[in-house]
Specification:
With 175 residues, this protein is of the alpha/beta class. It is built from 6 helices and 6 strands. Helix content is 35%, strand content 16%. The relative contact order is 0.15.
Length: 175
């Protein structure tokens, strides 16, 4: 696969990354990682369409320095050597979605927050139910830790990777 240096023209680069939870699909812009999601064909096609429309550009398979950093940090995370991700990223969504995702980035490793807890920190939020959409549409699985959010009754919130992946991540972080 050809390696591109991200330069002047905006191009979104994509790759796959092997993890203990299976393959994940990653995408990067000039500013950083814009997507990391579990690999399911329908999901990937829909997310690539979002990238194309949002950036008005081509999305091509390639490698870049952001992916090298991402692979290293994911490996460290799964080996319990990393509790936070320190890599350039670009959150892609509405103002409200980005506000929710930034709040999720404040949840400490190994801890869980409820809908009520998250909602209390988001100004102008009228309904806890409104949190479900940003959680489901998170483009940076694991990095933006939606897996650390549960419903107020203690049941798992629907997770993009599936409940088994969410349980795996929570167990990994709690050990």
């Amino acid at each position: 696969m050809r390696e591109y240096k991200i330069q002047s023209k905006e191009i979104i680069l994509t790759t796959t990354i092997d993890t203990p939870l299976g393959q994940m699909f990653a995408a990067a812009s000039k500013k950083g990682i814009v997507m990391l999601c579990f690999f399911t064909p329908f999901n990937i096609e829909a997310r690539i369409d979002i990238l194309k429309k949002s950036f008005h550009t081509d999305v091509i398979p390639s490698e870049c320095e952001y992916f090298d950093t991402l692979r290293t940090q994911l490996e460290e995370y799964f080996n319990k050597q990393r509790t936070t991700f320190e890599l350039p990223m670009q959150l892609l969504g509405s103002t409200f979605q980005i506000q929710v995702w930034k709040e999720l980035l404040n949840i400490p490793y190994g801890e869980i927050r409820t809908f009520t807890n998250i909602a209390s920190k988001i100004e102008g939020l009228r309904s806890k139910k409104a949190l479900e959409s940003p959680l489901a549409q998170n483009m940076l699985n694991i990095i933006v830790p939606c897996h650390r959010v549960e419903k107020d009754d203690g049941t798992l919130n629907v997770y993009a990777g599936g409940d088994n992946k969410k349980e795996f991540l929570l167990k990994l972080e709690r050990k």
